[in-house]
Design a protein that fits this description.
With 227 residues, the protein is mainly alpha-helical. The protein has six helices and no strands. It has helices spanning 12-47, 53-99, 110-116, 124-136, 144-166, 181-225. The protein starts with 11 loop residues before the first helix and ends with a helix.
Length: 227
C-alpha cells in the first residue's frame, strides 16, 4: 500500500495535552473526595452529638462550597479534555486513513458525533478508537485497554448519578439531629459513590492515556517509514 507521508499530521502534541488535562481531572476529583468524607464525618459527628452546632455550621458553610467548586472544576477540565480528544481522534483517523482506509466501521465525522448522538454514544466512541488503534498497528490486536477504558468510563457516570439519587438531606441544616438513620446512611452511600466514581474515572483516564500514547507512537513510526 502506498502511504502519503505528506498528509501526516502529528498527534503526540494533542496526546500530551490530554495527559495533562486528565491528570488535572484526577487530582481535583480526589481532592473533592477527601472533602466529601470529611463532610460525612462532620455530619455523622453532629448527628451523634459529638460536635456542636457552631462547629458543624462552620464546616458546612466552608467545606461544602469548596467541594462543589472542585467537582465543577474537574468537569470543566474534563470538557476541555474531551474537546482535545475529539480533535486528536479526527487527526489520528485522518492519518489512519492513509494507512488502512478500509479498516474502519464509522466515517470520520463520528469522531465528534459518536459522543453526542443518543443511544449510539454508548459504544461508538469505543468503536471509533478501536478502529484507529487497529489501523495504526494492525499486528497488535489486544483491545483490553480500550474495553477497560470504556467500561470504567460508563460505570463512573453511573456511580456519580447513583450517588445523587441516594442523597437525602433535611432542608434546614439546624435540624440535622432530626435526621433518620436512613438519611445518614444515604449520605454515606453518596460519599462512597463519589469515591467509586473518582476511582473509575482514574482507571478510565489511565487506560485512555495508554491507548492515545501507543497510537501516537505507532503512527509516528509508520509515518517515518513512509517518507
Amino acid at each position: 500500500m502506498q502511504h502519503h507521508a505528506g498528509n501526516f499530521r502529528a498527534v503526540r502534541g494533542l496526546g500530551s495535552a490530554f495527559v495533562a488535562l486528565a491528570a488535572i481531572v484526577v487530582v481535583v476529583q480526589w481532592a473533592a473526595v477527601v472533602l466529601r468524607w470529611i463532610g460525612y464525618r462532620i455530619v455523622a459527628a453532629r448527628y451523634d452529638g459529638d460536635i456542636g452546632s457552631a462547629d458543624y455550621n462552620w464546616a458546612r458553610d466552608t467545606l461544602f462550597p469548596i467541594e462543589v467548586a472542585l467537582w465543577l472544576m474537574s468537569f470543566l477540565a474534563m470538557l476541555v479534555a474531551w474537546i482535545v480528544v475529539t480533535v486528536w481522534l479526527s487527526r489520528a483517523r485522518a492519518n489512519a486513513d492513509n494507512f488502512a482506509p478500509a479498516a474502519h466501521h464509522l466515517s470520520r465525522p463520528w469522531a465528534f458525533w459518536g459522543w453526542v448522538v443518543p443511544i449510539v454514544s454508548l459504544w461508538f466512541p469505543a468503536l471509533f478508537v478501536h478502529d484507529v488503534d487497529t489501523a495504526s498497528a494492525p499486528r497488535r490486536r489486544s483491545q483490553g485497554l480500550i474495553a477497560t477504558w470504556w467500561i470504567t468510563w460508563v460505570l463512573a457516570w453511573i456511580a456519580f448519578w447513583a450517588g445523587i439519587v441516594s442523597l437525602r438531606m433535611p432542608d434546614d441544616h439546624d435540624t440535622i439531629q432530626t435526621m433518620r438513620d436512613s438519611e445518614v446512611d444515604g449520605l454515606f452511600i453518596f460519599s462512597a459513590s463519589r469515591s467509586a466514581s473518582a476511582l473509575l474515572f482514574t482507571v478510565a483516564a489511565a487506560c485512555l492515556i495508554a491507548v492515545i500514547l501507543r497510537i501516537g507512537r505507532a503512527q509516528a513510526a509508520w509515518s517515518s517509514t513512509a517518507r
